[in-house]
Amino acid sequence: MTIRSFLGAIFLWLTMGIAAQSLAQSDPKALIDQLGTADFKQAEVLIGQIAATGDARVVPALEAFAAGDLYVRKSDNLVFMTRPAGSDFTLIDPLTGESAGSAPKAAVSKIRVNNNLRRVIRAAMGGLTLLSPEKSVRLSAADAVLKAPSAENLELLEAAIAKETDGEVRTRMEEARAVSLLSSDRPLEVKKEAIATIKKLGGRDAISILMAATPTVDPSLKPDVDEAISSIESSLAFWDYAQNVWYGLSLGSVLLLAAIGLAITFGVMGIINMAHGEMVMIGAYSTFMVQELIRSHFPGLFDWSLAIALPAAFLVTACVGLVMERGVIRYLYGRPLETLLATWGISLILQQGVRSIFGPTNREVGSPSWMSGSFSVGYLNFTWNRVWIVCFSLSVFFALLVLLKRSAFGLQMRAVTQNRRMASSMGIRTPWVDAFTFALGSGVAGLAGVALSQIDNVSPNLGQSYIIDSFMVVVFGGVGNLWGTLVGALSLGVLNKFLEPTVGAVLGKIFVLVLIILFIQKRPRGLFALKGRAIEA
Length: 537
Known about the structure:
The protein is α+β, with helices and mostly antiparallel strands. It contains 21 helices and 7 strands. Strand 1 and strand 2 form a beta hairpin.
């Protein structure tokens, strides 16, 4: 053999070896088989290489790997997906999904997987679906890469971005590319642009990505990373503040609903009605009964159940209030202590009556489809049931204003509360004005019960949770002043939501009570004091 022939043989051998290695690195089946003998670190590299093939057929194998259903056959180190078949396993080709025979359970070994590998697998599967024809699939894939960034996905991301025509999906892909760039070996200028993109992305996920990259990022980029983190934290602090304000307004709207009826009975008539909370509870149970009737006989009307329950609850609680006023309270005008004791006794009777009829356990009141779900504005989260309750509370408030200012009944009510003798001499039947005013306050409490049934447990103790807060709202806002009730309810709601994270719910309520006591010392007639005894709208 000549030297030329020898060198030619060596060159041919090296060429074939390199070609074989290159083929192995691009053949998805060969790469999947290597998972059988790889450790965790090697498996991460292999997953990246599998994803880099761009072959969508590997997705079932990756899903099986993440679920712990990928096995290696001990005799030849080939990898299969499996399905139990009695005492054996049915072997399934990880690439084609076809059956590859069966094997005893002792003949195969499960390929181990940990949480870090599962994260890498999710990112890899996201990259493989970036070119899907379905927009929702591409968007989900970009989200997966965004939550689990990896430099291995950069080429796939860039190829997908170049072909993407949908603006929303393209933006999400560019964000995913930016977070993946931080762990790559791309130039510093490119990484600076990526940091700016992540800063625009914002949110706590962006902070987590930047903080995770801080130990490994180039020292010259650390000021950019720190500035981006600081800017995002400032923005989140503002949104957290705004979220607390919304939660406070939401709570305040609930307090407004519970207190606005009390503002009429206590503020106008001077009746300390300790059974007002039970009016709220009866309204909630009226909603439950309406929904039970609709479920049994008219299931197609369920989305209208609350609209039907509103007049039903108002009428039921108004009638209960009318009976209370005619049967007990009309004999106790001008005697506040006796009124307090009598209404407290009535509240106990009503609670026990509800327990006897419906039982002591909570009752389920469903939400119509239009009150379910949530939506976001920026980083503010809104639930539809709370939004509708806020709107409903304000609607009830303004409806009462119109009733008191523009109706004949409202004029008579204000006349009686201002000067009963003069009103009586003018022909106004003052006893019936008293009765219907009390019925109105009770009916409004019933409306509050309909709304509260959507956010609280419907139980015999429902009203007890709101009676004290309702009195605080009325006293703080100004006895008999509806605008004071509105301002007082919203103010106390916001104050409670800012105090709760700091001192806790119980201490927060105590702190609010102390503040109101101190405030009353300075302004005994509340925030908006009335002139005379007439209700002020």
